[in-house]
Amino acid sequence: MGKNSRERHRAKQKAAAHAKRRSHSAGAPIVGPADIPAQHQPLAEIISDALRARQRRHAADLKRCRTLLTDGPGGAVGVQTVNRTLFTALLREVRQAWERGWQPAELVRMARREHTARHARQMVDAIAAQMRVYAKATVEPRWQAQLAALDAQVWWDHDDHYVDVWGEQEKLDRAAAIDHLLDLMHLLKSLPPIEPTGPMPGGAQQIWQASPSRDTDVDQRMLDRVRALLAKAESTDFPEEAETYTAKAQQLMARYSIDHALLAAGSGGKDKPITRRIGIDNPYEAPKTLLLQVVAEANRCRAVWMKRFGLTTVVGFPADLDSTELLFTSLLVQATRAMTALNPRPDRYGRNNTRSFRQSFLTAYASRIGERLNSTTEEVDREMAASAGGANLLPVLAARSEAVENVFAAQFPELTSFETPISNREGWASGRAAADRATLQGKQAVAR
Q1: Which residues pair with 274 in a beta bridge?
Q2: How far is CA 309 from the centre of its chain?
Q3: Which domain of life is it from (predicted)?
């Protein structure tokens, strides 16, 4: 039995013991994410008051509401009622965040970013509970992949006891456990609408059955091969071996992207740009985002940084988005390895300047990679246009670039640009040198 399974088994034992202590009916169903019943309206008002007090930083009002929720009306049964009402309210906020465009992995990421890893674990539980009402066939593959990566599963026996058994598992008292739920509800309420990147659960079945425009099995096999090649290229200590792996990956990616473009154009298919979001974590968010932007543009995609949320939205055709994600991930691994291998000298006053060095290093790295990618892209375009049957390629690519620009402009009509400050010349020079040594693991380098 693995570690996660053992933890879930212990949690279920605790839940069962807790249920026995509370003497709830053995036949009581699991409470789903339905709206709060009318008889619980007073509790709903207390929760609303607590969230308003938290928003306005009214400590006394928040403490009063927390006490009412912690104690519960009428003993054990009242505590269970509070638990059910709190958890149902949390699930409703999760559902509404999905309706505003947010995805499961993004909600967990925001919980960790704004609060703690413990909040993130509770967000995973809320997502698992909310997913109970959707048939798997109505959940699109990228959502399913996120849920699998999060290991989102319902491990507790009854929603009426989730608050308490979760607190026991996290070694928190009841008041602290309730505070965590209120934190998550406040966070979810504060998230603004963002561009949907696919259908939310319940709406994917018709879309995926009616529009089988991509051979997803073939695509997945090819992408798995590319990922395996890139992993070997990043892990080897021998440059010649890395070049062999990346050359094969580049060849696969080039065929993948161009084949999709020509197939869509030749068949009159309705292939069109879509939106994805990629998380960018601290430290050094700005230069990492710059690297993603230059990779996206070289792959005929457009990217914009949502600084508050640590997310970058990328617009492009599916095959080009796949190339962007794979290439960005590989180059970031190479940049990080090269950066951490260097020990910057103290400045003339003897101060540690590691942070400014690394900020400048990554900025220079991204800038130089962008130059290399754009140069190679232009070379590939010229060679492909001159090859047999290449006369139709450039108009097809131009049309796709225009389609991407139109979708991007519609989503982001007003953008603010920024400059990443450079304060360390040694870091800048080292970053450009590292970029010159980097292997361009994607479709751009195939014609080199």
Answers
A1: 316
A2: 10
A3: Bacteria
- Type of residue numbered 72: G
Residues 211, 79 contacting (CB under 8 angstroms): no
Q: Is 60 exposed, middle or buried (0-12, 13-18, 19+ CB in 10 A)?
A: exposed
pLDDT in tens, 367-412: 888 887 777 777 777 777 777 566 777 788 888 889 999 999 999 8
Q: How many H-runs (helices) and E-runs (strands) does the chain carry?
A: 17, 3
Helix residue spans in 279-353 (DSSP H): 285-298, 318-340
- Asked if residue 119 lies in contact with residue 172, where contact means CB atoms within 8 angstroms, the answer is no
Residue 266, Cβ density class (10 Å: 0-12 exposed, 13-18 middle, ≥19 buried): exposed
Q: How far apart are CA 136 and CA 133, in angstroms?
A: 10
State pTM to two decimals: 0.77
Pairing mode, if any, of strands 311-316 and 302-306? Answer: antiparallel
Question: What is the tens place of the pLDDT at every residue in 110-134?
Answer: 999 999 999 999 999 999 999 999 9
| 274-279 vs 311-316, strand pairing mode | antiparallel
**Residue 426 and residue 18: Cα distance in Å, rounded?**
60
| CB contact at 8 A, 207 and 140 | yes
Say how far apart CA 301 and CA 322 lie, in whole Å: 11
Residue 387, judged by CB atoms within 10 A of its CB (0-12, 13-18, 19+), counts as: exposed
Rounded to a whole number of angstroms, the CA Rg of the chain reads 26
How far apart (Å, rounded) are the C-alpha atoms in residues 407 and 302? 10
Under 8 Å between Cβ of 250 and 331: no
Quickly list DSSP for 372-392. HHHHHHHHHHHHHHHSTTGGG
3-state secondary structure at position 311:
strand
Does residue 275 sit in helix, strand or coil? strand
HSE-CB for 105 with a 13 A CA cutoff: 18
